[in-house]
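From the shared-data thread, chain only:
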Amino acid sequence: MIALDHLAVAGETLEAAVAHVEETLGVAMGPVGEHALMGTWNRLLSLGPGVYLEAIAVNPNVPDPERARWFDLDRFAGKPRIANWIVRSDDLKAAVKAAPPGTGAPVRMQRGVYDWTMAVPEDGILPYDGAAPALIEWHGDAHPADALSDAGCRLVRLEIAHPKAMELMVAYPALLRLPQVRMGPGPVCEMRADIITPHGLRSLR
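Structure, as tokens:
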């Protein structure tokens, strides 16, 4: 069983990614957190119970990691955008086995009270140009969404377009059972999240 966990908005800098989210949704994101193993940092925003959004970028204040960063951040360029989406499972090993080849190998990480394992591709690039989700398993009871202030934002749907969307759905049929996610063909890999905010419905790309 898998469920939508969070969305990753990447930027060339964390400031740019955060500004994109805050200007689009009209709400403030949370404080900075760091991922020492990956050389990245982020800020979070609640999208309701069990779901959140992170703005993420390379952390220029720490040494480069000895491996490729997750979410293909080593090659990220251009405007901030939703670059990846993450689904959680209570059995990561089984989820990886059911996912498309190249989804990655499990990497255990901790930050404060949070303890998780994520499947990270060796080159940092998720299948189908990132249209396929990253997979995560949380350990223990702590989950970031539970600690975030409620900013009044709720995810309505996540739209994912890709030239090989049909191939991805055939390769990973479990994605069709995620009620908030819609996939379809498009000329490039592109994602759009429709989010209810205190200012009405906003679309974040």
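Residues 63 and 167 are 38 Å apart (CA to CA).
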